[in-house]
Amino acid sequence: MECKSCRDDIANNELDQLAGRFSPSRGKFGLLVSRQFDKKKLFHDRCRDTAQDGRAFILALDDGDLRDLVEDRKTEQFYQAWEPLKELFDAFVS
């Protein structure tokens, strides 16, 4: 897991930096958490490309995603809270 508090949108450099830390012995799944993504769809597309290249599966989350997960958990919808994460991951393998 890596957390970023960048003023600018997270770019390929940060994604490549995190993807470079993965290996068969360390695993190939990670979370990148940032305050916000100005171009969230574009970054998700980059994460999908990274997964399809066989480098890593990286889910990108921002404050809003984390807030939604916490709120869903508070309302006892814990398993539903994981659905957005599952949808992100499913986009990598479809």
Along the chain, the helix and strand elements come as EHEHEHHH
Shape: globular
Helix content: 40-55%
Fraction in beta strands: 15-25%
**Number of DSSP-assigned strands:** 3
Question: What class, by secondary structure content?
Answer: alpha/beta
How many strands, which pairing sense, and closed or not: the largest β-sheet?
3 strands, parallel
Number of helices: 5
If you average the pLDDT, what whole number results? 83
Radius of gyration: 13 Å
**What is the domain total for the residues?**
1
Give a short summary of the structure:
The chain is α/β, with parallel strands linked by helices and 94 residues long. The protein is built from five helices and three strands, in the order βαβαβααα. 51% of the residues lie in helices and 16% in strands.
Defining key terms:
94 residues; 5 helices; alpha/beta; 3-stranded parallel β-sheet
Polypeptide structure, described:
The structure is a single chain. This protein has a 3-stranded parallel sheet with strand order 1-2-3. The protein has one domain (2-93). The radius of gyration is 13 Å and the shape is globular. It has helices at 12-19, 40-52, 63-74, 78-81, 83-93; strands at residues 2-4, 29-34, 57-62. The protein is an alpha/beta fold and 94 residues long. Helix 1 links the parallel strand 1 and strand 2. The two termini are 23 Å apart.
